[in-house]
């Protein structure tokens, strides 16, 4: 058997690919390289460059794979919540229309398993500081809306065709499981901090008057390699015909503050700095942390890395990339 990883040349997708290979499971990657990197795809892994909006390409990928594809991990998508407000139609095309095209191609090919990359953005600003899978969904951006619609598409296709599916709701994904792989997003916290330090600028904290121990926002930060392991566990559970929930939160149950991250970065990098203080952003809640109990029960989910290890792995990957570019 083989699993197709859409977006498998991206930061998260490339870690998922390696987690499958570590379990001896064949993988096929499809990615349009709009935010991914061909160098992130391991040697020997079949790589199809193109968009999952291309139905003909998807049909060929399923039909021509040397190892039959029995499931899909759907990581591809437009993942920038803030930018999605300015580009709603692009976001819907990439995240909703593309998922429809993928599900149709899967059905035509007889592929009946899918693990979907969803997001904590489906919750918006929750009224509780410990989020569970049953917490009310109230997305506040086109990005969050498209992820929730993606979950609905899987649900409805499951009812119609028997598709086996689960959606994994990510919180803040950080770190690196391989020095060759790093987060290159221009919008995520770790790259923003590292870019500032490398450029000689001071990282910024938005607000220090929240109702938290150090006054800065508390959020869930999870290591990308731990996330990847749970994708493989979900795939294996489906292949074995074992029961699986429709959705899982991949959360720490605890969380760390932005202030803690800044001080840890200073320690790990050896670059002493005091963050610049900016006004708090409207709508930012004091604390959002998710319970990962269901995923721990079913998907081998656990926090295997300390905050320092998360920062160190990300910093090492960033430095290695800088060395290669010199």
From TrEMBL:
GO terms for biological process: galactose catabolic process via UDP-galactose, Leloir pathway. Gene3D superfamilies: NAD(P)-binding Rossmann-like Domain (3.40.50.720), UDP-galactose 4-epimerase, domain 1 (3.90.25.10). It comes from the Bacteria. One of its GO terms (molecular function) is UDP-glucose 4-epimerase activity. Pathway: Carbohydrate metabolism; galactose metabolism. The keyword NAD applies. InterPro entries: Epimerase_deHydtase, NAD(P)-bd_dom_sf, UDP_G4E. Its cofactor is NAD(+). The keyword Repeat does not apply. It catalyses: UDP-alpha-D-glucose = UDP-alpha-D-galactose. Its EC number is 5.1.3.2. Residues 3-251 form the NAD-dependent epimerase/dehydratase domain. Belongs to the NAD(P)-dependent epimerase/dehydratase family. PANTHER family: UDP-ARABINOSE 4-EPIMERASE 1 (PTHR43725:SF53), UDP-GLUCOSE 4-EPIMERASE (PTHR43725). This is UDP-glucose 4-epimerase. It comes from Glaciibacter psychrotolerans.
